TrEMBL record, chain A:
The keyword Magnesium does not apply. The keyword Cytoplasm does not apply. Functions as a two-component phosphorelay mediators between cytokinin sensor histidine kinases and response regulators (B-type ARRs). Plays an important role in propagating cytokinin signal transduction. One of its GO terms (molecular function) is protein histidine kinase binding. GO terms for cellular component: cytosol; nucleus. It comes from the Eukaryota. This is Histidine-containing phosphotransfer protein. GO terms for biological process: cytokinin-activated signaling pathway; phosphorelay signal transduction system. Pfam families: Hpt.
Automatic annotation (TrEMBL), chain B:
It comes from the Eukaryota. This is histidine kinase. The gene is LOC116202892. Residues 334-566 form the CHASE domain. One of its GO terms (biological process) is response to water deprivation. The lineage of its organism: Eukaryota, Viridiplantae, Streptophyta, Embryophyta, Tracheophyta. It comes from Punica granatum. InterPro entries: 2C_system_His_kinase, CHASE_dom, CHASE_sf, CheY-like_superfamily, HATPase_C_sf, HATPase_dom, His_kinase_dom, HisK_dim/P_dom. GO terms for molecular function: cytokinin receptor activity; phosphorelay sensor kinase activity; protein histidine kinase binding.
Amino acid sequence: MDALQLKRQLITFTELLFREGFLDEQFHQLQQLQDEKNPNFVVEVVSLFFEDSERLLNELAKALDQQNVDYKKVDAHVHQLKGSSSSIGAQRVQRVCIVFRNYCNEKNVEGCLKCLQQLKHEYAIVKTKLEALFSLEQQILAAGG
Amino acid sequence: MSFSPLCGLLLRLFLRIRRWAMVTMPPNCKLPGSNGKLPPSLKFCKKAKEPLNVRSCLRRWRRKLFYLWLVLIVAIGIVWFLVGFRGRTLFGEIKSSDICEDVLMEHLNVSKNQVRGLPSPLGEWNQVHHSEKDGFLIDQCPVPSEGFLNKHGLLKLEDRLRPLVSQYKTLNTIKGVLGARREENYGDLGPTSSFLAKRCWWAIIMVILSCKIPSLCLKMRTKRKQEKAVQLESTTQPPKQLLLQQRQQQQSPDPPKRAGKWRKKLLILFILSGIVTSIWLFWDMNEKISSRREETLANMCDERARMLQDQFNVSMNHVHALAILISTFHHEKRPSAIDQKTFSEYTERTAFERPLTSGVAYALKVIHSEREQFEREHGWTIKKLGWATKEMESEDQTLVHDSNPGNLDPVPEQDEYAPVIFSQETVSHIISMDMMSGKEDHENILRARSSGKGVLTSPFKLLKSNHLGVILTFAVYDRDLPPDATPEQRAEATVGYLGASYDVPSLVEKLLQQLASKQTIVVNVYDTTNKSAHIKMYGDDEIVDTGLVRVSHVDFGDPVRKHEMHCRFKQKPPLPWTAINASVGVLVITLLVGHIFQAAINRIAKVEQDYREMMELKSLAEAADVAKSQFLATVSHEIRTPMNGVLGMLQMLMNTDLDATQMDYAQTAHASGKDLISLINEVLDQAKIESGRLELEHVPFDLRSVLDNVLSLFSGRSNEKQIELAVYVSDKVPEVVIGDPGRFKQIITNLVGNSIKFTRRGHIFVSVHLAEEVQIQPSVRDKVLMHSVNPVKDVSQRSYDTLSGFPVVDRWKSWEKFEKFSGSENNYRTEENRSVDVLVLVEDTGIGIPFDAQDRIFMPFMQADSSTSRTYGGTGIGLSISKCLVNLMHGKIDFVSEPDRGSTFLFMVPFMKCGENCLDVKLQDSNPLVLEFQGLRALVVDKRSIRAEVTRYHLCRLGIYVDEAQSLKSACIYLSQSPKKSELSGYAMVLIHKDVWDAESAAEFYRLLRQPQQKSSKEALVDPPKIFLLTTSIDPSERIKLKLDGLIDNVLMMPLRLSVLVAFFQEALGNGKKKVGSQKKPSNLGTLLKEKRILVVDDNVVNRRVAEGALKKYSAIVTCVDSGQAALEMLQPPHNFDACFMDLQMPGMDGFEATRRIRTIEREVNGKILLGEASVEMFGKSGGWRTPIIAMTADVIQASNEQCIKCGMDDYVSKPFEEEQLYSAVARFFQSG
């Protein structure tokens, strides 16, 4: 495939991501921050996000698995996740985080668990999408675009 | 008598009190804010006061109730008092009347009615005296009309007494006696009244106590509740809704309800006690009346009995005397001096002495052996009493029927005979009859003989008169017998018997006729010798039972015979009207008062109910308000986020390659977006102010630096529009005041922004004075102030002596208003010497406000007319917010405006003067570089004195002495005329405004300044004065040209402000240690942040990375740490960070806490530096440590912003970063610092 086509594909894909609400303005801002001095800024940040999120999701699962759920801890984790997701513009994850925090304030275990599932789901989607995005970019680079 | 009108008066009084209470109640209990609309300035903290308000209302109520109680008790006391007195005086009356009667009876033949008529006025007289005493008591109580009544009563009494005076004169003889009695009565009454008074006072004290105790209890209870609530509030800081709930709980309706029940119980108790009192009163008075009646009856009866007895005894004595007469003249004389004729004549003539006897007769004792001789002597046989053959009891019948003695049988043989030999004419028919032959008479005779006293027969019907009568028999002895003679001796000594018949009914009748009140009582006299069968001697047969019977024993001198007198009233006792009146009066009063109380209690309950309802409504309204502001905050947040996107995109768009039109479109869109954001902020502000949730800070701040900040905000725009912008602060205004700098700045910003918006040419001038300065003598006034008050038109130059020469409005009118305002507050201010009224004036030469729109200029969203907003933009909310803020600060705002001339807004707000604890602020805010220029001298050449004055003000802040000159020429003259050359070199700088600049005179001036240097090179050590050109705007080519001319050293851009001046002078005078970046318009973040060391604190690795990336993009040197603790370590002085971006929510130590600690450390270090204790390396930065800390926050809710500022942060940016916001936040520190 030639670079132009790939680029077009990338633009369409990104637009789709925005339209479907996976990503928001912040991701654009992130992309803005990427320049010659920081060529891999977005990838760097997003992979940081992946690491952090996976760690947090594990922590959350662990915390909610216990007999006496420490809601403060859960809340702190969700807050972290919310912060990071909003930083990279993973809008849908962020939204679930907000709902999650509400349940957390109500100390609703079932709600929390449901949200955790949802979070995992959203996270997985956003991860795949972003990975796809990055691979596209790689391809563009590889294709000399 | 005097009681019933008094009672009526009391009743009327009560009615009036009640009406008064009903009328005055409603306005007093009107709840604050009950007019539906809550005052907008109502704050949360004020809420606590409101229940207190209502409570105080209730307390007032209670006080009223208490007064009612008092009045009631006094009234009852009076009633009691009167009743007590009445009883007393009645007794006194009776007593004195009795005494009087006796005395009169003894001394005079005064008619009884007259006598009785006398004491009653006396009694009244007494009463009057007592009621005067009453009046004295009453006067102490707040019922003044009583005394008046008494006077009336006295007058009336005097009228009534006048006719009695004549009677008094006739009764002179007894006056003394009566007077004595009266005094006795007084003596009696003294202790009684004091006792009653004591009782009254006790009752009052009891009532006071009973009123006070419950109110105290209530107070204690509420106090405890409040404390609890305060504890609750202080321990936890729950969200507002929870707080509301707590308030509702705090205002739980329990205490008033309980109090209401308690009140009702008290009312019932009161009414019951009133009823009981009235019943008791009735019983007591009735008892008194009946006992009095009984006593009266007893008195009368006894009196009658005694009189009867006395009269009977008198007459008996006469009979006795007759007996002695007979013994003397008949038996001891021989021959007898008395025969029948003599006897009958004598007795007839002395009959008046025995008014009660119908007749007397004398019977001789004849023994059987002497009978014949006796019969012979007298020539008649001793006849048997006509009835002797008959039964005993028929004696009276015989006496009645046998009127013819000739028909009588001679008496049969007996041991003894007692033939009547003498008789009064009235009873002559019984001569020769043997009295011994009748059984009754026989016994009588025997008894009389043996006792030697008068003896009575049982009553029988008398002859002729057909009345009941008794016969009195006396024995006549032939010699004097010793008093202890035996019956036998007496019998032996007996020679005859004297009998007298008494007509009892006529006796009693006569007696009763003598006595008054015959009509009122019925008298019966009985012979009770035979206890089982009383024989009636006098009285009606039919006895009407009227209840009371009084039995008095009557002793007629015969020990064997017993007589009784029965008295009873003719009529049944009348209803005890006095008692009924008094008790009914008390009952009515009680019920009335009870009614009043009930109405009051109902009212209280209703008010309490209303209050509770209102509190509920209030809490609902507040909840709605909270919801509204939350909604607003949320919505604004929701709008902000996409708006940030729009703005960011637009910015990016503008960075791309656009043609002019596209650029214009993008710029317009960007500007609109920014307007929208600021509008949202303003609406949020307005909402907050309106809901009263805006709380003002009270922190020390430097007023001048606040104004500098405002100036820096608008300097760009004013330069663009070529408007002169200047700030002037009077010397009198203290450097540091306590208040809310943010809000103060907001007000000025709003006003200046408004002015800039509507001004196309001329100037905007902000001047700050003390309100006192306006009031003092014009000669002492500040120069600027003088100009503003008396604008002088410079006719020759066709311009005005204002900042820019454009005419301004005459704001004198408005000042006058303010003077009034401050004048009225003057006393208050002198008392609290710590507060100062700061008067801020924002003057512009804009389009002005049309007169018809001037009265609605402070209304939100109101602009002069709708076309204005189209032309100039804006929403018109700024002025409304300013007004609200000024009001909130307890200040006043006003304006004067004239279309096409301009407007002047002026406001006055009180600030607290700062004590010694403000050094900190001075240290923080004042730039230490200022000291560098201390003591320098400068010459300002400007033709407009106000502008020169403003320049002078700014230079003075740097400690530079300023001389002024109107023009270059005058400056030249001044300089050349100065005697010493050193005078010239004394100037470090000369500031020349562009208006007075012209090349020729400038050259001359330049020469004048530089000449001395050229002449004496020895003085080259002294720098020649620098020459600066002051200007609002200058185009670059002109600037270069001027510089090339070499006449000036540099161009200083107006508006002047401290930081710019400092930087400028440092650069120009060459002694600046620090390189100050471009003093004007740092074009973008890149230049601003370049090479700055910035610490980013965030626990979230992603966020950290993003922030780092964003800042690095602007060439900042970024260090990242992940916790507040780490940040604390990094920022421990000495360090080389220029700023710190801090996340707020972090585990462990959050942003607020970290900032607080950093600030504490910095303060300590600064203190050490000040004292010279710190090591040299601490002086890494001159002027002390204060690292700018900027909060990074996800949610842009105002509250958290305020919290940021409170804990010592400098600003905040929302996460994720937005370029503009980042710029504006950072610019403050890196530009002016």
